[in-house]
Design a protein that fits this description.
This protein is of the alpha/beta class. Helices cover 37% and strands 17% of the residues. The chain has a seven-stranded mixed β-sheet, with helices on both faces. The radius of gyration is 20 Å and the shape is globular.
Length: 319
Amino acid sequence: MATPKHEEKKRLHRRNRNRDRYDLAILVKTVPELGDFVRLNRFGDYSVDFSNPKAVKLLNTALLFNDYGIQYWEFPDENLCPPVPGRVDYVHYLADLLAEHNYGKIPTGERIVGLDIGMGASCIYPLLGVTEYQWSFIGAEVNPASLEAAMKIVNGNPSLKGHIEGRLQKNPKDVLYGVLGKEEKVDFTMCNPPFHASAEEAKQGTRRKVENLTGSKVKQPALNFSGKHNELVYDGGERKFIHNLLKESKKFEKNCLWFSTLVSKQSNLKGIYQALKMAKAEEVKTIPMGTGNKSSRIVAWTFLNKEERKQWCAERWKA
């Protein structure tokens, strides 16, 4: 298999290890089963069948093994399989945000603690945060089986042990309540909220995605990144989930330096900004992200004023 020509994915973060086009020869050598899903595309290049859930999972497994030193990454096929390049971009942009309070230098090490809201069976954000910056994580998850799968990944990788704590969210209507203690502090939160408001909406979205990838009509599409109901669907969709997070974050305003969430739908931004203004957030940042043809953004907010932020970093980040 010939290695494709160099092609940089310029929309990815500058520190993203996957900015270059995938070297499929190396990835197939890392995970040989991936070779069964590599084909010549219409441009005469070797490519993976991105419409096939198994191919997508094998590709991302190979990326984690080859580029991030992960040794074990197993979880049920019905769970959401995250695309590694896009997920690690969120981690890198949060690192840049924290660096603004550290004279431009990214704070690293276990003193930095993040809360991943909806860790998922793949444990992807904590896994990448530990690998890239040696941070510590609390991973909150509403599904007991997904939490168990995530912790098996932690225990299956010596580099992750002791850095990631899993916590079960017992009330699916809550976001921070029941997960973060009243006096507990974290340096940031991150979240990839459920996108759809109903199962039917999720199916329609999947159909559009698969048809775009294959160029043909599909009646019953398989989710190419898989995904259980609670990973994809929330009553009220992304907008309702994020507004619940905003409301609860106000109750924990002194517990966190920067709250953050992904916002996939641009139409939700206006309501988010209005809610944060009413909650009297001290500062709000919108950080654009993009992978392939998809555009998204991170919205981050803090209730701490500049002096409180300075004091926070002096007390928590200095040896």
